[in-house]
Amino acid sequence: MTLAFRHCDPRFSFLWQSSSQPAARWHGEDEGPANYFADTPTGAWAEFLRHEGITDAADLQGVRRSLWTIEMPPVNPQDIAQADLPTKLLFGDESSYPACQRAALRWRASGKTWLRARTAALLPGQARGWTATALTTREQSAREGWVWVYYGHCNFVGWPVVEAGQPPAAVLPLTRPLSSS
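RESULT FIELD:
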């Protein structure tokens, strides 16, 4: 079983099931549902922080988000589009969204229902995890974070991990800001 992570507003379902969601990097207006999943909890929190432009720990005080663990279904490799765009588009600010959305439309038109891309939210190598020893925890080797996007209605099973909480302040320095301003 593969697990993924997703943040959401605690007032709503953890999955989009209609086309009436705001546009984002990999889908445009009225092109949903498009559900985004991170391969780590840090990645899911970083996606939220980047989207909201939060860079200061003081700004976390008013945040109330939910974090879900999602059981990912088995995926046929033929159904996956691998985002192979230039780095400046993959990690760019909102001005890069139209190019990413056009690429995603092409992949979907060719029958792809999944998209896999490096996360734009985490800085390079910051999707690392931790291991436990008898007395301490130890940070593991650097690795890249990934985002999965599923296009269409889905019946994925999810478990709430955090209800109406806030991301750890430790995620802030790992997050690539959406804009430099």
